[in-house]
Amino acid sequence: MEEKEQFFLEIYNLGIIKFGNFTLKSGMNSPIYIDFRPIASRPDLLIKLSDLLIHEVPYYDFELICGVPYAALPIATTLSLRSKIPLIIKRKENKGYGTERMIEGIYKIGQNCLIIEDVITSGDSLLKTIIDLEKEGLIIKNIMSILDREQGGIENIKKKGYNIRTLFRIREVFKILKKKNFLKEKERHLIQFFLRKNNIKNIQNKRISYEEKKEKIFHPIGKKLIDITLKKKTNLIVSADLIDTKKILKLVSLIGDRICGLKLHVDIINDFSYSFINYLKKISIEKKFLLLEDRKLCDVSTTNCLQLHYGIHKISSWADIVTAHVLAGSMSIQNLNLPSNMGLITISEMSSYGGLYDDNYIRKALNISLKNPKVIGTVAQRKVDDRLLLFTPGIHFYEKKNNLGNRYIHPVQAFEKNGSDFIIVGKAIFQSENPKITAEEYRNAGWKAYENVL
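User: That's the sequence. What structure does it adopt?
Assistant: Structure tokens below.
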């Protein structure tokens, strides 16, 4: 124990714990951020850490080592060198060139692989690594982490049937730091707040209800969307990616009673007109759903503002919600002169595979979203802060990828794994033989998936 304490104090001096307001990879907000990456610049500490990890493994029968990308990679590499056990490398995503493999290295089906993780919060990124390794025919018996934030991740992994051990737990390291007088008064208060807020055992617990979420959403359009959802018992948004107004109106007449929102791309409509918009708006009021223009604004603020208010579409005059990327930074979605009854949805992460966004970008996008009062929610493929509504595109009853870069997931996965609030379905409905029946099937599946995770 003394050796572990001394080691932790050494790495603490590298600045691995930061205090402030952070959005974690899981999408959750936290006053504490733990980052083990600075250890990579200290070979002596990497060696000490790998030796501590080896002593914690209950039995030494693994044939491969793999680190969860990317923070755990230097740790796993050092452990491989110290133990002389081969290393394999897990990619975060298929790069689309070269071998296009997710797992790099030499291995055989049936080999036992030890997984190394740096910090466990919800356990989601660890589970992704497990799934990819098992797809390759590898056996996962043991997992080692450096630190458990005690927010349900360990319990989540154990429920899946895996053995997992950790060098440190968050309460334990706080006690060490307090005993050695390493903490300032403000930091002690932040720690106490963190421990109280999380009620530490259970972040993966049941999601909050729409009623509870409504209390956290301050924008009137966000609240209105939740009210519609509760009244109609639907979290289904249909993406009407059609180029003919008659087809859009015919689709809406069939499915309007089953949706809470209709998503449009007005710039693809060949015969766009204000009479069409006025009629569509009338139907949306009668059947109680919102109009979402998927414009994906992606320029500087002044240009975004012009695209919203001017041109032939004049989006701000009729849309309830508009989407925007934040590639140009937080200022790009400020000063847009949005009407008070119009909300903004940011694009933090798309449903396509091979995208250029990474976890660092997604965290920054979520932070920008939380700080802008016009933002009601975000598009992402992961859990996000409860102050944001989560919209999940790429929904299909048959999980699959296609050769156009699209990736589809089932409504159940959207709610159980990603913590979704709203599912977005397109071709599966408007290309079906009977859109009315298909929309009801997706409405029912989405609502049941929501109720089952409460």
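Confidence is low (pLDDT under 50) at residues 200-205.
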